[in-house]
Amino acid sequence: MRIQKLVRIRQNFPDRRLADVAAAVRGEMEAADWANRVARGSRIAVGVGSRGIGNIAIIVKAVVDYWQSRGVSPFLVPVMGSHGAATAEGQAAVLAHYGITEAAMGAPVVSSLDVVNIGRTGEGIDVSMDRNAFESDGVMLCGRVKWHTDFEGALESGIHKMMAIGLGKWEGAKRYHCWALRIGMEAVIRRVGEVVMNTGKMLGGLAILEDAHHNTAEVRALGVAGMAEREAELLARVKSWKANIPVEQLDFLILDEIGKEISGAGMDTKVVNRSVNLGPNCWSGVPHIGRIFIRGLSALSYGNAVGMGMADVANDRLLENLNMEATWVNSLTASTTQPAFTPIHFPTDKQCIERVLPTCGRLDTRDCSLAWIRNTMRLGDLMVSENLLPELRRNPAIEICGETRDLPFDDEGNLVGVFAAAAMR
Fold first, then answer.
1. CA 85 to each of CA 117, 161, 166, 167: distance values in angstroms, whole numbers, following the listed order
2. What sign has the CA pseudo-torsion 377, 379, 380, 382?
3. What DSSP letter does each residue of 189-248 carry, written as one string?
4. What does the alpha-carbon distance between residue 362 and residue 17 come to, in Å, rounded to a whole number?
5. DSSP letters along 324-362, please?
6. Largest CB tally within 10 Å, which of 32, 97, 152, 326?
7. pLDDT, tens only, 125-157
8. DSSP letter at 66?
9. Per-residue b/e over 196-215, b at no fewer than 16 CB within 10 Å?
10. CATH, domain range 21-239
11. What is the pLDDT of residue 422?
């Protein structure tokens, strides 16, 4: 098949990384009135989620150290809805793979799916909360503020969503996603968050902001008072830093991997322009993408291949490493089915490309534009077809690296990886 040659490019995003992440966390916590009011001897639950947040072990350790320096006893609670196959053991294992263990943190990890009912919203949503967190003297959450994969709003992913989907565990997550189909997810997380905060158990949260390189750029200790407004301001800022594939239109996108630590939808829908509810090419400000090819599944996804149903084709290796139960549980908990659909699949990368590229609507496959990325979190370094170079040369933030080359297939018909540390499973 005749296919465009590719060339490596680099996007030169601003580097906003903190020089000393632990010191920044400590400074925020020490300056937070809500943290300083916690009495010595208190037992505090620190909630941690399942996303692949940069420096998360350093951040959580700094939070633990702060509390212990104040004579407070912290313990760690997984707040991740149905992730980790919706089991207490699975959720503790997710944290362990991020380096968050009792031995490393100096504080116990208490993982359970047991919840208590703490009230009801005005719409009639019953609100659940992790029992261990509720029975503590106070709760704080450590989470990244960023755009969500399934909806647009002033509040998307962040502390409020963790209060609802995370602290509600599997039982709450199922209920809230069901209600989201009726009134929208932003309304759900706002209303549920209000009930959680009204219990008096919520102390606050540490909001983590990452730059386009996924460096830790800011940490902010948010108290309950005015939390929604402050979180909305942080979300607007981090959206302005968002990385994209730097073209207006793309016929064929190759992803080395999808995974739950990369995005709640396996791949960032606001990068690949897909939605579990709205279909393809529904988001503004991102490229129109014709076809998506997934080569594999991240090792840190633990077999959860949710999101694969938004792709057009996949290598058989994705199915070979799939844990269908974990995938179904996650997808059905979110009241969605499409993300767990099995895409068309073939045994080699070459077959995947050659079978599907002709469906992109070009009479000659040499006219198809292509991009190849490791995953939707890593967009600084990518391969693009040479027919995109005229558009890219007009972008001063783009550096073209090296010469054009054919797609590098090995003797078995699979692409030879070009991105460092890609997890090909």
1. 23, 19, 14, 16
2. positive
3. HHHHHHHHHHTT-EEEEEEEEE-TT--EEEEEEEESTTHHHHHHHHHHHHHTT----SSS
4. 42
5. HHHHHHHHHHTT-SGGGPPPEEESSHHHHHHHHGGGGS-
6. 326
7. 999 999 999 999 999 999 999 998 888 899 999
8. H
9. bbeeebbbbbbbbbbbbbbb
10. 3.40.50.11440
11. 45
3-state secondary structure 247-296: CCEEEEEEECCECCCCCCCCCCHHHHCEECCCEECCCCCCCEEEEEEECC
Residue 410's φ and ψ, nearest 5 degrees, are -85, -175
* CA separation for the pair 285, 331 (Å, rounded): 27
Strand partners, 189: none
Q: Supply 274's token pair.
A: 């897909």
**13-24 confidence digits (pLDDT tens):** 999 999 999 999
Amino acid at 389: L
Sign of CA dihedral 109, 50, 87, 123: positive
CA separation (Å) from 272 to 133, 247, 372? 36, 12, 12
Residues 6+ apart with CB under 8 A from 243: 11, 13, 212, 271, 379, 380
pLDDT at 26 over 70: yes
Amino acid in position 162: M
pLDDT at 36 over 70: yes
Token reading at 312: 């057009």
Burial class (CB in 10 A: 0-12, 13-18, 19+), 297: buried
Distance (Å, rounded) from C-alpha 363 to C-alpha 122? 56
Domain with CATH 3.40.50.11440 in the chain: 21-239
